[in-house]
Every structure is written in C-alpha cells, then in structure tokens.
C-alpha cells in the first residue's frame, strides 16, 4: 500500500510539473522585430505574455509592449548575395484570379477558391501559401504569435478587422489574409514575388530594401510557396 501511495505521489508531482511547464510563457530566439510604424528593433529574444511581448534588447535592456504593435518578427540571417525577383521564374503562375482556375485539391479547397474569387486572387497561390503557413491547421499558432490558416500576426488581424478568436475561424482568417494579399498586389503593382516577400517580411521591409529583403527566411518562404504552387526556383 505504501508503494502505491508513493507511486500516486510521484504521478501527482509529475502532473504538477507538466502543468508548470505548459504554463511557462512562450519564448523564442529572434533578432529583428519590425514594428507597425516601420521601426526595426534588434533583440536577443522575446516572450509573448497575454497579449503583450517582452523584448530582450541586445544592449541588455528590456522592453514590454502590446503584441499588436509588432508587424513581424524575423530571423536576422542575411543572404550574402541575395537573389532578386528575377531569380524566381513564375512560368504561368499569376497573382490574379482567372476564370479557368479550379478548386484546389486541398483541405478547405472550396473556401479558398470562393474567397480567392471574391478578391480576384489566384486560388492555387493562396492554397500554396496556406500549406506553407499552417499546413492547413486553422488552430496553428507560431512561436511569434501568428495565427490560423494564413498565420496572421495580431497586428495584421486587427488591421483587417478581426478580433479575439476570429483569427482562428477559417472563413474570417482566409478573408483577412486574402484581402491582405490583394492589398499587397496593388501596392506592388502585381509583382507576385514582391507580394510574397511582403507577406513574409512586411511591405515596409520590401520598400526599405527596394525589393525582396535579403533575409534567408524570406527567400526560403518565397521558394517554398512557389514550389507548392508548381513553380521551381532556379539555383537551388
């Protein structure tokens, strides 16, 4: 009997330990925090805590602010000789919706198609973006705080009218995300590669660098989306 009580006590301690581990705020290493006003902060790490984010600055300081002030969090890994947009041949892949476009054979295919048609965006491209962003998991949350099928940051979700748990609703998430893709297309005059760069790194970073930013993360993102959309990049 005493052995049984010891086992139960051990299980109880294990359960408490699991609760403690699961309750620790999410923390991850990051180096570039792009603010909604375009300011860029270089940090050692960050932690998300109940709608706020704690930034550990490289000079040793700490900064806490609303997560809705953060547009992007990017790895500060620079490509030595970053390829330009011409590095990504698009073949027949376009940004705009065509009447010949078909429903993607993916989870949420019908919803992706209808949302894309509503905003005149290529549904095959959107499906590829969803695959890269969330692997079609509507409840996905990244360590950086991006949410749902198209991994909207809280600032982007708010910008396109979503609040609370709406970012995890497939209909709302896709509507806001595809509207953002449409907006980026207008901002970058239909340049599909710059649209993808802007979706990953933010339009401010695209404009700051005069094209695709030199971040490895962004170039990997563009390549993966194009591959899933049926286009192979050069020089891999």
- How is the CATH topology of the domain at 85-228 named? Lysozyme
CATH class of the domain at 85-228: Mainly Alpha
Q: What shape does the CA trace take?
A: globular
Spatial separation of the terminal alpha carbons: 64 Å
β-strand number? 6
Unreliably modeled segments? 1-28
Succession of helices and strands:
HEEEEEEHHHHHHH
Major β-sheet profile: 6 strands, antiparallel
Report the helical percentage.
40-55%
Number of helices: 8
Strand content: 5-15%
Please compute the radius of gyration using only Cα atoms.
20 Å
CATH architecture of the domain at 85-228: Orthogonal Bundle
Report the average pLDDT across residues. Answer: 87
SSE-based structural type:
alpha+beta
Give a structural overview.
With 236 residues, this protein is α+β, with helices and mostly antiparallel strands. It is 42% helix and 14% strand. The radius of gyration is 20 Å and the shape is globular. It contains eight helices and six strands; from the N terminus they run H-E-E-E-E-E-E-H-H-H-H-H-H-H. It has a domain at 85-228: Orthogonal Bundle (Lysozyme), CATH 1.10.530.10. Strand 2 and strand 3 (40-49) form a beta hairpin.
């Amino acid at each position: 009997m005493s052995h049984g009580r010891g086992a139960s006590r051990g299980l109880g301690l294990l359960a408490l330990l699991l609760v403690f581990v699961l309750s620790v705020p999410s923390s991850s290493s990051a180096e570039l925090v792009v603010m909604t006003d375009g300011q860029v902060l270089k940090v050692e790490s960050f932690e998300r805590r109940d709608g706020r984010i704690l930034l550990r600055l490289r000079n040793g300081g700490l900064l806490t602010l609303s997560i809705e002030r953060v547009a992007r969090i990017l790895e500060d890994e620079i490509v030595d000789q970053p390829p330009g947009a011409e590095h990504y041949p698009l073949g027949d892949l376009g940004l705009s919706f065509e009447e010949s476009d078909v429903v993607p054979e993916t989870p949420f295919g019908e919803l992706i198609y209808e949302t894309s048609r509503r905003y005149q965006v290529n549904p095959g491209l959107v499906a590829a973006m969803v695959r890269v962003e969330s692997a079609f998991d509507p409840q996905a949350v990244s360590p950086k705080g991006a949410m749902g099928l198209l991994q909207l940051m809280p600032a982007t979700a708010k910008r396109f009218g979503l609040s609370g748990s709406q970012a995890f609703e497939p209909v709302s998430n896709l509507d806001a995300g595809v509207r953002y893709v449409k907006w980026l297309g207008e901002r970058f005059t239909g340049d599909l590669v710059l649209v993808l760069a802007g979706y990953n790194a933010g339009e401010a970073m695209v404009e700051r660098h005069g094209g695709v930013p030199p971040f490895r993360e962004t170039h990997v993102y563009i390549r993966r989306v194009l591959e899933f959309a049926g286009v192979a990049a050069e020089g891999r």
